[in-house]
Amino acid sequence: MPINHEIVFTGRSNVGKSSLIRRLTGRNVRTGRRPGVTRKPAHITFKEMLITDLPGYGFLHGLPGELQERIKDQIVRYLEDNCDRILCAVQVIDARAFCEIVDRWNKRGEIPVDIELFEFLHDLEIDTIIAVNKMDLVDVGDRDHALDEIAERFDLLPPWRQWIDMIAPVSAKRGDISSLATLLHAKSRG
Ligand SMILES: Nc1nc2c(ncn2[C@@H]2O[C@H](COP(=O)(O)OP(=O)(O)OP(=O)(O)O)[C@@H](O)[C@H]2O)c(=O)[nH]1
Ligand SMILES: [Mg+2]
User: Fold this and answer.
1) Which of 23, 51, 61, 145 has the fewest CB atoms within 10 Å around its CB?
2) Residue 107 above 90 pLDDT?
3) Residues paired with residue 186 on neighbouring β-strands, in sequence order
């Protein structure tokens, strides 16, 4: 069966990419408490879609810098090689850690990897959904504010609710993934 509908999951290591795929598909993809569990693109087919779990980037502990660069190159090359059949990308971020990491990179005068990748996906004309995972760790009363802050880092003008076709707050842990499932469903129907 030729597969021309692919959904790729990208994001820093340990943000919960594999956990989200597991929740969405019910398949047993490898997840782990320690970062760096997924080292090579892993594929599953689900409802005539190819779902690709890309390795996480930005894992600082225990991996030499050179290997980190190699992982990033691997992701970039994978996206370039397959962009024609990629229906959309799900860029997964950690709701609690994201802004702090982005600000730290910006302060150093470097482009944060998440932002670089988001722009790269845009350049390749790959539709991208930002899945803000681990929302269970954000206090209910702070959620809108936290999501506004995140939208701003992606240059998406707050309030974040203006971007509900692009920003999906989720919790893989709680199984609270309906916003992402709805967006993916809409994309798969074209
Ligand atoms: N609190 C909370 N923890 C989560 C959530 N989703 C995933 N986790 C935890 O985050 C850790 C990493 O999950 P993975 O799904 O393996 O993350 P990954 O992004 O695939 O990681 P790599 O393969 O290393 O890139 C695990 O301990 C998960 O249980 C969530 O929604 N909330
Ligand atoms: Mg993984």
Assistant:
1) 61
2) yes
3) none
